[in-house]
Design the sequence.
């Protein structure tokens, strides 16, 4: 299947700083990627849809200015958590799918800890 | 709105025994259903999907799922469990028929004991 790579896998940052997470489709082009958030022992919640060359679409309740998404190329989407706070600590996962496919492929996730 | 429900937080099974992880769905029209598995601190891995066709879908690692329209269920099954199958399993459905973003169930933790 298609490969989606996410970097970094773990990051610890101080409160008030910003953190960038990268999501790459390694062997295919993805016009659309998705960012999810997963709290401990909970399911994945969709945060936003990343659209190549245009603005991201955010789910209800997700702060656009806090979670900046950039999808500048067909193989890379980035999520920047701005002015991070401890409550932003979570597991962030991206996904992408082939335009002609049906199943989504997921990155390995990024564990963000804000101290 | 399309949704799926996983009624069991955890399923325990002994190695070698058959396993079932339950999922029921609530969708309008013909459903598209997916199963994913998540290992600790990892992303999700695709197991199988139902789009159309045969009600019994075979997937990765020996897993299969049976689509049952009358019971609105899509239970994940495996004839003989392995300890390495211990993980978190998610049933999912796209909110619309565009195969884009997914709505996930709450997840079921499968624990296979030696």
Sequence:
């Amino acid at each position: 299947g298609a490969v989606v790579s996410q970097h970094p896998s773990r990051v610890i940052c101080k409160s008030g700083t910003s953190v960038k997470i990268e999501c790459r489709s390694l062997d295919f082009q993805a016009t659309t990627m998705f960012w999810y958030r997963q709290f401990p022992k909970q399911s994945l919640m969709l945060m936003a849809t990343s659209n190549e060359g245009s603005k991201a679409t955010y789910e209800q309740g997700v702060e656009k200015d806090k979670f900046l998404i950039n999808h500048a190329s067909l193989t890379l989407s980035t999520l920047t958590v701005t002015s991070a706070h401890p409550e932003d600590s979570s597991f962030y996962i991206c996904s992408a799918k082939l335009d002609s496919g049906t199943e989504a492929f997921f990155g390995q996730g990024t564990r963000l800890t804000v101290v | 709105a399309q949704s799926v429900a996983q009624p069991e937080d955890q399923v325990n099974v002994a190695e070698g025994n058959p396993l079932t992880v339950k999922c029921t769905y609530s969708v309008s029209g013909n459903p598209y259903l997916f199963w994913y598995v998540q290992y600790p601190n990892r992303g999700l891995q695709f197991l199988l999907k139902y789009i159309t066709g045969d009600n019994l879908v075979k997937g990765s690692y020996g897993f299969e799922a049976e689509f049952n329209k009358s019971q609105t269920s899509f239970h994940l099954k495996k004839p003989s469990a392995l300890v390495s199958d211990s993980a978190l399993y998610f049933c999912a459905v796209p909110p619309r028929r565009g195969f884009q973003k997914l709505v996930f169930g709450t997840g079921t933790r499968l624990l296979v004991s030696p």
